[in-house]
Design brief:
single chain; 86 residues; mainly alpha
């Protein structure tokens, strides 16, 4: 039905050229869409990796801070207990 309407409106001479132009447009759209999906997937992967690295870094920093706090408390306790003996 749509083909018959296009044939009447556009005419038989211009219809093949219009079909080629539309096919090129559809192919270009598919290519651009594929590139977009590929780029989006790569960016998503990069962001996920950065988040994992940040989480790892924060966890390591947290452990380092806890260890430093324990050492400081131990040093103070040892210092305080040394002062009590004198």
């Amino acid at each position: 039905m749509l083909g018959a309407i296009a044939l009447i409106v556009i005419g038989p001479k211009q219809l093949p050229e219009l079909a080629r132009v539309l096919a090129r447009m559809v192919n270009e759209f598919k290519r651009a869409t594929g590139e977009f999906v590929e780029t989006f997937t790569q960016v998503k992967s990069d962001v996920s990796k950065a988040v994992r690295e940040a989480e790892y870094s924060i966890k390591n920093s947290e452990e380092w801070i806890k260890e430093q706090a324990r050492r400081t408390l131990d040093e103070r306790e040892n210092k305080d207990s040394g002062e009590d003996k004198t």
